[in-house]
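Notes to self after the Tuesday call (sharing in case useful).
The group wants a holo model before anyone commits to mutagenesis around the pocket. I volunteered. Ligand is magnesium ion. Logging inputs and output together so the record is complete.
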Amino acid sequence: MSQPSSNILADVINKYEAELTNDWKRTLTQVSVGTGLESELAQLCTQFLPLFSRAVQRAAQENINSTEWDEARNLLAEFSRLRARQGFTPTQTAMFIFSLKQPLFSLFRREFATQPAELADATWLSNTLLDQLGLFTVEVFQQSRDQIISRQQQELLELSTPVVKLWQNILALPLIGTLDSSRTQVVMESLLQKIIETGAAIAIIDITGVPTVDTLVAQHLLKTVAAARLMGADCIISGIRPQIAQTIVHLGVDLEDVITKATLADAFVVALQRTGATLSPTLKA
Amino acid sequence: MTSDVQIPSAMPLYTDDDVVRVRAQVRQFAVEIGLSLVDQTKVVTAASELARNTLRHAGGGEARLQILQRENMRGLHLAFSDRGPGIADIGLAMTDGYTSGGGLGLGLGGAKRLVDEFELTTEVGKGTTVVIIKWKRF
Ligand SMILES: Nc1ncnc2c1ncn2[C@@H]1O[C@H](COP(=O)(O)OP(=O)(O)OP(=O)(O)O)[C@@H](O)[C@H]1O
Ligand SMILES: [Mg+2]
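Result:
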């Protein structure tokens, strides 16, 4: 009876696969891994166990980086990336793997009640492997999280697009990115500030780069237009793409009091006409 | 025969970033089932309204996204639920221009107009769930 411990481990898992899957699922519902995920996790347990035992059986070393572990690692990587995107914590992600230990170890204690050497081997091996797999989920989680964060920083960066002076008395504010953060407020305020500083008569707010215009974005725009008006400047909103225009109409947002133009260039033409019309008499005089 | 595809779990809605994530996922599904650009924009905007309401009026909750697969059509099934204060007067809440605090009061009515099916279930003190469906037109 001197089987390698990897075979012993795989045999036990295969033999009690159904029972172990159920115990694992039950353990998962007890540890905090996020709400409403029962069915998803249950499915993942069922998928993971056979991959785990197959890898254990085939791999020569206690190292999850070998090719025999590819399938198991891929499944976990996919799961970890999803978790990162959904905004869960690394702990909640790794708990999925770590929570297999308890049911697995109690299974060993029962199965090897009279074989202390086997018990020790199986426990040691599975403990080593599960630790590596748990850390692997954290690693993948961290990588995806970093990607998400750098993308979000990019969005913030883009949103800080400065107010530009297009012409005498004409300002433009090209907005780019998702208008969710408090930065929207900052950007809008910087436009108002610039209107005061320059005494501009017209401000063009270009929303070509804004993917979604919902009531909150609309409200920001309307408030800015109203405030600019109080300071003596008219706003033109440009870059309203056809799909956005239709959506705004269905939402019921009233932009009737606001001058809107399809493109920044169109808006600029209107702005030139308007400022020109008020300026030319004085210029001629 | 139906075989719906579901994003395996609920997406949390507790921060502005969560709203952005949900919107991005809705957009991805909308593209996946082949919605036109206009319909993509409509359903993403409706989702944005409901996600924001969950955040702003109920202090948070979750979104569940699902692709519906029917014999000859596909659709997006989106559910937003919370355990917030609930809505005492649905008729009033649905009225354009009604807001209990500082909004335009267009979110609920607007979302309904932007999709094909809209169902609001609510109980005071228990919470609110809004389900919307957008079908792909052929
Ligand atoms: N999930 C919710 N829980 C509790 N109350 C809600 C919820 N969703 C909406 N309400 C109530 O219904 C009202 C109308 O919602 P609606 O989305 O139409 O407008 P709003 O959120 O106030 O403003 P906005 O136009 O920016 O969306 C809200 O002001 C709020 O009182
Ligand atoms: Mg709202």
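Two things stood out.
The longest strand of chain A covers residues 202-209.
The interface with chain B takes residues 34-37, 39-40, 43, 82, 85-88, 152, 178, 180-181, 211-216, 218-219, 222, 242-244, 246-247, 250-253 of chain A (CB under 8 Å).
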